[in-house]
UniProtKB/TrEMBL annotation:
Enzyme class: transferase
Residues annotated as domain Nucleoside phosphorylase: 30-267
Protein name according to UniProt: Purine nucleoside phosphorylase
EC number(s) stated in the UniProt entry for this protein: 2.4.2.1
GO biological-process terms attached to the record: nucleoside metabolic process
Amino acid sequence: MADPATDPFDVARDAAAIIAERTGTPRHDIALVLGSGWGEAADRIGETLATVDNADVPGFAAAAVAGHSSAMRSIAIGDTGARALVFGTRTHFYEGKGVRSVVHGVRTAAAAGCHTIVLTNGCGGLDRSWGPGTPVLIRDQINLTAHSPIEGANFVDVTDLYTPRLRDIAHTVDPSLDEGVYAQFRGPQYETPAEVKMAGILGADLVGMSTALEAIAARQAGLDVLGVSLVTNLAAGISDQPLSHQEVIEAGRAAAERCGQLLADVVGRIASEGRPA
């Protein structure tokens, strides 16, 4: 549990300083958080110039979920001259370490100089046309955790939480990409059919256990945000099949090549275009 007396932004700055030292570069440009099914993207973005174990960086911990990596990588994004800071895992809210720990990677990315963050996840889909292995852009979200990473009277506008310009770039890479609303539940239990039905009534197309809190923290930090979900299974009640994490892993493996290349192409395009002045 995070010490309430410690400024989380100070911890993020300390982490960014260690990352700069270990990677040999004073700043990175784009950060990626790789959720279930997205691990192969790191190998396709470009040359890995440095790898840093999470345990060596303040505020980070080993992966708690099968299929995730306990290291972060500094990667040259093609020939753009830009650098990507790629997190191979995230801290989930259900781990009980507090919201500060959940969004520490996001705040570290901002402290490391990143102007953009790409948040990915594996999730359940409410649309039957999205079979396992379908990537979906997140256009908006519903935070069902009853928590926020923003502390105190800091009122942050999240109207366009997921940056429209970045979604437009993704559509130029793959015009067939659909968009949807992502709802974050606390977990770690999967959602019940009734909860999925509720989420659908509220407007959700995707359900999972991550991303929403990170996106809010990213907006507070001034980062542009691109969210991409990999539908690994139909949500509870949409299909009559039981849910399992092994199913999530297997769907991620099956879609790894396509999704990895998609994400690499999108990140390359973002890096080439840069951030508007």
